[in-house]
Specification:
Elements: H1 25-56, H2 62-84, H3 98-108, H4 111-123, E1 129-136, E2 141-148, E3 160-165, H5 172-175, H6 179-186, H7 192-202
Antiparallel strand pairs: 1-2, 1-3
Helix pairs in contact: 1-2, 3-7
Length: 211
């Protein structure tokens, strides 16, 4: 029996070659169609298995399935956000604007300092994982965190504004083992409008400037 479809691969907002020369068409196609699709398929398979087991009152290895589900579902969620916070380069990269610019400059003192800290976070991920810019609701400030694999080191109540995948499958065709070069290239194709949109969706109504 084929797994029930709970999740589907999101449609990209751009063509496979639109992010060149920073991410090649072949690299993006492989990442999206093979790796992201595998996490979608994995989550659907586990959810179908759980659903059938409950209907028939069957015993399962819940510990293993729960871990596998969080891994695949985390991969799907993070990749779905990653595609959205990328965009083709159009002319000069203007960088963050509006509310996002004000808050980043307020917290990190300069956009250059923010980029430096985010890049170092991404490059220093041990093994496979992600760098993420989050909005901390309790502190009312942006935080940069690492996510190991897809599902470790996530902190509750930190909506993610921007993520960077530093698994080797995200860059190996283009950059081989040169993760730092890939991270540098990433800044040329950030969709800052999308990052700002996600920030404003999570801000309190009375917070338009950093505290």
């Amino acid at each position: 029996m084929d797994p029930k479809t709970f999740f589907t691969l999101p449609k990209l907002r751009y063509e496979f070659g639109a992010l060149e020369p920073f991410i090649s068409s072949d690299q993006l196609k492989l990442h999206y169609e093979k790796h992201h699709q595998a996490y979608v398929d994995g989550a659907n398979k586990i959810l179908s298995k759980l659903e059938q087991a409950r209907k028939k009152d069957l015993d399962l290895d819940i510990k293993a399935l729960s871990k596998e589900l969080s891994f695949n579902l985390g991969g799907h969620i993070l990749h779905s956000l990653f595609w959205k916070n990328l965009a083709p380069q159009i002319g000069e990269n203007e960088g963050p604007q509006g509310t996002l610019k004000s808050i980043l400059e307020g917290e990190f003192k300069s956009l250059g300092r923010f980029k430096k800290e985010f890049s170092k976070t991404a490059v220093s991920v041990e093994g496979s994982g992600w760098a993420a810019l989050c909005w901390c609701k309790p502190l009312k400030k942006p935080l940069i965190i690492q996510i190991e694999k897809h599902n470790l080191n996530l902190i509750p109540d930190l909506p993610m504004l921007m993520v960077l995948d530093v698994w080797e499958h995200a860059y190996y065709l283009d950059y081989e083992n040169m993760r730092a070069t890939f991270v540098d290239a990433f800044w040329n194709i950030v969709n800052w409008a999308e990052v700002n949109k996600r920030l404003e969706e999570n801000l309190p109504e009375n917070l338009s400037q950093p505290q």
